[in-house]
Amino acid sequence: MATVGADNKAMLKTVTVARDLGSVIEIGSGLAADDRVIESPPDGLADGDPVKLVAAPQAPEQAGRGR
User: Fold this and answer.
1) Model pLDDT for residues 4-47, shown as the tens digit of each residue
2) How far apart are CA 63 and CA 13, in angstroms?
3) Rounded to an integer, what distance in angstroms lies between the CA atom of residue 13 and that of residue 60?
4) Which of 22, 50, 57, 67 lies 20 to 30 angstroms, CA to CA, from 36?
């Protein structure tokens, strides 16, 4: 599993998969709640590589919300 450290560099972590639900997995151990996970890291990503952060796409407003 690849995460982004406080210095915006890649950190590779060993994790334990608790359950594999097909398109989603549950991690049993190896990650902290505040870890910034890289969703689809490239194959060549190595520990310590610089990572450029981009904003997550915003969810569209729900119809009728806030009325």
Assistant:
1) 999 999 999 999 999 999 999 999 999 999 999 998 899 999 99
2) 40
3) 33
4) 22
Exposed / middle / buried, residue 66 (Cβ in 10 Å: 0-12, 13-18, 19+): exposed
Q: CB-side exposure of 35: number of CA atoms within 13 Å?
A: 17
Contact of 4 with 39, CB cutoff 8 Å = no
- Asked if 13 and 31 count as a contact pair (C-beta separation under 8 A), the reply is yes
Residue 15 pairs in a beta bridge with none
Nearest to 3 by CA among 49, 55, 60: 49
Contact 55, 45 (CB under 8 A): no
Look up residue 35 and give its two tokens: 């870890």
In DSSP notation, 13-52 reads ---EEEEE-SS-EEEEES--TT-EE-SS--TT--TT-B--
